[in-house]
Write the structure tokens for this entry.
Amino acid sequence: MTPRLNLPADEITRAAQWLADVSNWPDHPADLLVHRFDLKSWQARKAVEKAKRMQLLRRVHG
């Protein structure tokens, strides 16, 4: 079975993509995501980790 390519991004992924595009992160990026994207704190922490991985992949495969 092949994965669907046009899956809508969930809120955590959307927040992570936005954060990964920010050049200078604030001291508490999860707090920013809680307010900006109306996430729960656990979702914001997950988005921060995902954003870190996204930035790493961009640097490696840039």
